[in-house]
Amino acid sequence: MSLISLIFFGVFRYFFDKLKFSITFIILFLVLLLTEASLGLLIYKQTGKFSSFQIIITIFLIYAFTFGIVDFLRLDRWMRKQIGKIRGIDLLTEKDLNIMDRNKNPKYLAKKYRISSIVHLAVFVVGQTIFISLGTDSISEAQEYLTDFSWVEAGNAKNSPYPNDTIFAIGVVWGIVFIIDFIYSWSYTIFPKIED
After folding, report:
1. What is the three-state SS of the chain?
2. Residues of 90-110 as b/e, b for ≥16 C-beta within 10 angstroms?
3. Would you write out the chain's pLDDT as a tens digit for each of its 196 residues?
4. What predicted TM-score, i.e. pTM, was given to this entire model?
């Protein structure tokens, strides 16, 4: 059903030019995701376990309501440009064109990615602090884990600062994603592209 709502969004937005009506299908898509996440929470309360699917839905929801909004807008502009070419009409507004030009500016991109990486760093530190506080009894115990990462190799929560395997998996995957995102974001500052 989620996929069908995305297809209807695309059809109404890009082929029938019903921009306001197409938003209904994005809202439906997000409502369906929230429903799936709520069902996952209900299952967790009954079983005490999170499945990989529930973790993926939760991560996707967090992404969708944070960084995903900007990525979606960028994808929407790209789709309107490509489908406009196919249809032989211009689906982009003047504002869209200005934003696309601005996003080609290396200095703007470097600044934008520096800011987003700092925001991600703050969220990551707060989130990991919460996770680790749930699995440790003191600051000194947490510091021991943060100075010796040998527990990562074990692949489970038993000898880690995390309280259970689910939070261990989320914490480790988030850590990997954070490192990749941070390096990628700062590459725009360290290795700036030359303007055309």
Report:
1. CHHHHHHHHHHHHHHCCCHHHHHHHHHHHHHHHHHHHHHHHHHHHHHCCCCHHHHHHHHHHHHHCCCHHHHHHHHHHHHHHHHHHHHCCCCCCHHHHHHHHHCCCHHHHHHHHHHHHHHHHHHHHHHHHHHHHHHCCCHHHHHHHHHCCCHHHHCCCCCCCCCCHHHHHHHHHHHHHHHHHHHHHHHHHHCCCCCC
2. ebbeeebeeeeeeeeeeeebb
3. 778 988 899 899 888 888 889 999 989 988 888 888 888 778 877 887 767 677 777 777 777 777 778 888 888 899 989 998 998 988 888 999 999 999 888 899 899 999 989 998 998 999 899 989 988 889 999 899 988 888 888 888 888 999 888 888 888 888 998 999 999 999 989 987 765 5
4. 0.67
Of 121, 135, 126, the residue nearest 168 (C-alpha): 135
Euclidean distance between CA atoms 134 and 61, whole angstroms: 23
The pair of structure tokens assigned to 5 is 């709502």
Whether the CA torsion 167, 169, 172, 178 is positive or negative: it is: negative
CA–CA distance, 28 with 33 (Å, rounded to integer)? 9
Tell me which amino acid residue 93 is: T
